[in-house]
Design a protein that fits this description.
The structure is a homodimer. Chain A is an alpha/beta fold. Chain A has helices spanning about 5-15, 15-20, 35-55, 60-70, 80-95, 155-170, 185-195, 195-200, 200-205, 245-255, 310-330, 350-360, 390-400, 420-425, 440, 455-475; strands at about 100-110, 115-120, 130, 135, 145-155, 170-175, 210-215, 240-245, 265-270, 270-285, 290-300, 335-345, 365-370, 380-385, 410, 430-435. In chain A, helix 3 runs antiparallel to helix 16 (about 455-475), helix 4 packs across helix 11 (about 310-330) and helix 11 packs across helix 16. The longest helix of chain A has 25 residues, at about 35-55.
Chain lengths: ~500, ~500
């Protein structure tokens, strides 16, 4: 396997004169105040130009519609994920990105199968009715005859514990654990509630339950179940795990509240097969002066297997792709290299993010910043990073230049799952932050489709990302405060 | 007619002790710096509390759904507008607002009628096909046999002028005048393009045209026509005026570009009838210390006659209504009076805004601020005002306290149509600014419905507005820099 540096070697050979001409600033010297000011004016002007181009042309929306048409339901290891990889590589080449390549990644293969039903047995008044479910990714299936058992409802793990083995054994545990509407940040509400999806089956099985049902992760009350990942626990029985729509959860809970006995039959064909080979897809705009220094921009190419995966994360993939392609098209080649990485397997394994990290771990100092877009294609609000101190202040000053796009705030937060292995090793990780209000209306559902993406909102996100990565890649000094590569051995 | 002051007289009589106890600051003395800081902390805390309440309860969405169900298509002078007035008055009483009342307003009555068709005659290949139109508000109808004429396309008034009488006479002028997608602010794009809807018929008629068709005011290309207001001109023939969907406009233009002759038949039953009586609806939360000083918050109760009018302006009406009702419910009665005004007839006459101004014009100094929400129920971005100087700085400092709601920016801009007569006479006019990306997807269409309003986005708008009006109404000194009423004569 070639390393990032050896891959760049041919480029380096082509531009030695340029490299020698770069007057690298002393590592610790801040840019003069005047330069900072003119740089903010430059950011505003670039943001205006790029947003005008993108809003008029609609390139991101066109790419997203194509990806969702060519490769909907592109779960890792599926034929559709293979089509997504092919589409991404072909599209990068067509858009003129450089060093376009795949990097092989071994991914899990979970298959939903044909049969997926939750049927009411009791109350007898509703017997035979089907309730809208989706198996959770990673769940085992049921025997062919299904699993028929009484439903016991809990509002969380403390209530499950109180129930104990006596209350749970032989039963199906229903986690009626709503995301808290009152929280200002829906991602915080998701963070609180999602443990019941991730660990609900293992915790219920530890008390002898035969299956688990989790209320879908959304603040809306509707009939769309939301799938997502779950984990079994070593040494604990594996039991089937599904998500039930919020409206149906309320319905079942209302029966129980009236003292009705609720019995359901769960039938699932889902299964985990042997891991298969897939790929991250990478393309670049090679830096004109410091090509070996990299500003990474990415999203994840895989989605859940139930919908088009438009917001999650077709939007982020197309943000990254079109941001780089637009800079290339407009001949806005920055000093450093912009590297687009479309990661595979964010949804159920993070194999792509881990693999990328493993490949570059001996040359992490080449990575000046890694930016991920994985919060949907909504109107931009800003960016997030967990970094503190001067690097944060410098980044905040740049981001403030995006305020006309609505993207002027630097929030406290992570960068994104795929770049988290890089972040743990000290790479400056930044997340794109769009408006979060509608994300969980669509997240992991059949309706996460391009018609639920607003074209203006999507393109403004690309404009914000393109402006930021160009600016960071074109700064004289590294934004992350580290010395330039050219100063090292 | 009672004036606002005489209406408040009973209240004043009840609280003389309170009034005497108020230590009014000297008109020009700024609040101490410490107070300002604690005030910003107070704003943040209030914003958090109100957003939590509203996101959890969903009061604004519930009100909006009810208004749109009870009174969809509530154009001024219609039976539905009457139902909207009844609903507003009843709801204000139910929510515990004080001094609830109607103020009679004479409004125009324009009726769309039954028949509204644009039928292709040529190209013969498409003869008989109907193209999606809506008559513009105020348009005259056609004779019963319709108007059949050749279509001539222009991209704007300069091209119309170049066409001259020879090119326009006896023809139907098609204004293919797209809103410019590339502009960052869709309202700016609307501002540029909408003259062709407002004045297209008059300008075309001046050259002898027999009807005018305007491309719908949206950057989307779809099959939903967008209606809106138009004006005839004294001394110029009145000709029928319609809006054509953007997709159909592109279709007709493509025929013309191929050199095809395009002939259409326009059939319209619309007409203007005698003016009728309607009303503004008003309710208050009476100030605990300075009840005669008023912070007005409003939206407009009327809508166009084609859809539910959810974003325009059911959202603004419910923002104002629920903002005040929430403060009342939580016993957050500020020093000054909060007055909710739901204006009638913003869409085709502004009779409500003018009438309100006429009633209060001799006591304008009672109005500390007027805030209107008429840009839809999208995620809040901030507020706008045209005022400069210290008042702007003070307001910006308060608005900055709303940044956690995403509403921290004070933009340059007007307050809103209904409060523009107040603004012209020096009242501090402030507009609520939500994210503008999607507004013109729905504006003046059949699809401006509650299902296209996101509940979280809507409630966050109410929280931002409620926080700002409470804060302004509770400040020690008037935000508008004017002396307190109690210092006068």
């Amino acid at each position: 396997m070639s390393t990032a540096l050896s891959r760049l070697a041919p480029t380096l050979l082509l531009v030695p004169a340029l490299l020698l001409a770069v007057a690298a600033p002393a590592p610790s010297s801040p840019p003069p105040a005047g330069a900072e000011e003119s740089s903010v004016a430059g950011i505003r002007s670039l943001a205006r130009r790029l947003s005008g181009e993108l809003l008029q042309r609609g390139d991101t929306m066109a790419a997203l519609e194509e990806l969702c048409r060519v490769a909907p339901r592109r779960l890792s290891g599926s034929a559709s994920a293979d089509r997504a990889v092919e589409w991404a590589e072909r599209t990068m080449r067509e858009l003129g990105l450089e060093n376009v390549r795949r990097e092989a990644v071994t991914v899990p293969r979970w298959v939903r199968g044909e049969r997926e039903r939750l049927v009411v047995v009791e109350p007898s008044l509703y017997a035979g009715q089907e309730l809208p479910i989706l198996a959770l990714g990673g769940s085992i299936g049921t025997p062919t005859r299904g699993i028929t058992a009484e439903v016991v409802r809990v509002t969380g793990f403390p209530e499950l514990d109180a129930l104990g083995r006596e209350g749970a054994e032989g039963r199906i545990v229903l986690y009626d654990t709503p995301m808290q509407s009152a929280l200002l940040d829906p991602f915080a509400a998701y963070g609180q509630a999602v443990q019941h999806r991730s660990n609900g089956a293992a915790n219920a099985a530890a008390l002898g339950a035969v299956a688990s049902i989790t209320r879908s992760m959304t603040t809306r009350v509707d009939d769309h179940p939301h799938t997502g990942g779950m984990r079994y626990r070593e040494g604990v029985e594996r039991i089937p795990a599904v998500a039930l729509s919020t409206a149906a959860t309320d319905r079942v809970s209302s029966w129980l509240a009236k003292g009705e006995r609720v019995v359901v039959r769960l039938e699932l064909d889902c299964r985990t097969e042997e891991p298969v080979e897939s790929a991250n897809v990478i393309g670049e705009v090679i830096g004109r002066e410091l090509p070996e220094e990299i500003v990474l921009v990415g999203g994840h190419l895989d989605s859940w297997d139930v919908g088009p995966g438009a917001h999650d994360d077709g939007a982020g993939s197309c943000h990254a792709l079109i941001a780089a392609a637009t800079l290339k098209r407009l001949d806005l080649r920055p000093r450093r290299t912009i590297r687009v990485v479309l990661f595979m397997n964010e949804e159920n394994g993070l194999a792509g993010g881990r693999d990328y990290h493993a490949r570059v771990k001996d040359e992490l100092e080449t990575h000046v910043m890694a930016l991920e877009s994985d919060r949907g294609g909504f109107a931009p609000r800003g960016f997030s990073t967990a970094v503190e101190g001067k690097v944060r202040e410098d980044l905040a000053a740049l981001v403030e230049g995006l305020s006309e796009l609505g993207a002027g705030r630097l929030f406290m937060g992570g960068g994104g799952a795929d770049i988290s292995p890089l972040a743990r090793d000290g790479v400056l990780a930044v997340g794109f932050v769009p408006d979060p209000s509608r994300y969980f209306d669509f997240h992991h559902t059949t309706i996460d489709s391009p018609e639920n993406v607003n074209p203006r909102e999507l393109e403004l996100g690309t404009a914000a990302i393109a402006t930021l990565i160009h600016t960071v890649a074109d700064l004289e000094a590294r934004i992350d405060g580290k010395p330039p590569l050219t100063d090292r051995d």
